[in-house]
Design brief:
The strands form 2 sheets. The protein has a 5-stranded antiparallel β-sheet, sandwiched between helices. Strands 1-2 form a two-stranded antiparallel sheet. 42% of the residues lie in helices and 17% in strands. It starts with 29 loop residues before the first helix and ends in a 6-residue tail after the last helix. It is an alpha+beta fold. A hairpin with a 6-residue loop joins strand 5 and strand 6. The protein contains 9 helices and 7 strands; from the N terminus they run H-H-H-E-E-H-E-E-H-H-H-E-E-E-H-H. It folds into 2 domains: 59 residues, Winged helix-like DNA-binding domain superfamily/Winged helix DNA-binding domain (Arc Repressor Mutant, subunit A); 172 residues, GAF domain (Beta-Lactamase, 2-Layer Sandwich). The radius of gyration is 27 Å and the shape is elongated.
């Protein structure tokens, strides 16, 4: 049997070719390319456009365009309304995913900057939907983050991140959290009970850093700086070996001093 030559193969196999430098060009799927061209054409018409117009603008044969438009509509990337095609809800999900990815990159950039500046692991966390949410961490093998040996969400009473987030809640919010995640000492340095913790939080000055020493894990000291945007409680935190606890004062002062500029950079990332 004769083998098909590249010119004989249908374009859904590959539109790739070998470049002059001897490296193979990427394998491209023609039908995917044409579908993307149709989406791009549809995006240019806020009020929608008929299939014939989209096919012409995308440079796609009309019979092929009908098949692709039907598929894109089925997958909700397009909607057919009164004979014209408009962008569908799946495109909006792509936009949101891209925006969320951009916010996450911004958070990672901020944390990396502070990790390099402080020479210590840096954490960003939110209080969201009634739970502590550790969003991102920046560390290195030489300065590793604290190992989560006990679930951070269930042990907010024992680490600086959780205590700082709880300090930003009102009394009712704190009691609600502790009713779902009761205080349990994790080390000899941990706060022993809920009432002791509530009194400590009530006595603390609002929006001031929180420091804990070996309450979550032996050999570790941690500090957290509060950040509030609207009704969302957030923190930036650092951890150090307990033997270097004296460094916490300097690192915390640096974070607290620059919290305004940090908050401006993170303002649009809080909802990640």
């Amino acid at each position: 049997m004769a083998h098909a030559t590249p010119a004989d193969r249908p374009d859904h196999w590959s539109t790739g070719s070998h470049q002059d430098d001897g490296h193979a060009a990427p394998t491209l799927i023609g039908s995917v390319q044409r579908a993307l061209r149709l989406l791009e054409a549809a995006a240019l018409h806020e009020g929608g456009a008929p299939a014939k117009q989209l096919a012409r603008e995308a440079g796609v044969a009309l019979p092929t365009a009908y098949h692709l438009l039907r598929t894109l509509t089925h997958e909700r990337y397009l909607r057919r309304v009164d004979g014209v095609y408009v962008l569908g809800p799946a495109v909006g999900r792509l936009d949101e995913a891209h925006a969320q990815q951009s916010r996450r990159h911004l958070i990672d950039d901020v944390l990396r900057h502070w990790h390099e500046r402080l020479g210590a692991p840096v954490y960003f966390a939110l209080y969201r939907d009634g739970e502590v949410d550790l969003v991102a961490t920046a560390d290195t093998p030489g300065n590793p983050a604290v190992a989560e040996w006990a679930d951070f969400r269930e042990t907010a009473h024992a680490h600086a991140i959780g205590q700082c987030l709880l300090s930003q809640l009102d009394e009712e919010g704190r009691r609600d959290h502790l009713s779902r995640h009761p205080v349990r000492p994790l080390t000899p340095y941990s706060v022993p009970d809920s009432q002791r913790l509530l009194r400590r939080l009530a006595a603390a000055e609002r929006m001031q850093p929180v420091v804990e020493y070996q309450q979550y894990a032996l050999g570790v000291a941690c500090a957290a700086v509060p950040i509030t945007v609207g009704s969302t409680a957030a923190v930036l935190a650092v951890s150090l070996p307990a033997a270097q606890a004296e460094r916490l004062r300097v690192t915390t002062q640096l974070l607290h001093r620059d919290v305004g500029s940090i908050m401006r950079r993170l303002r649009f990332s809080i909802s990640i």
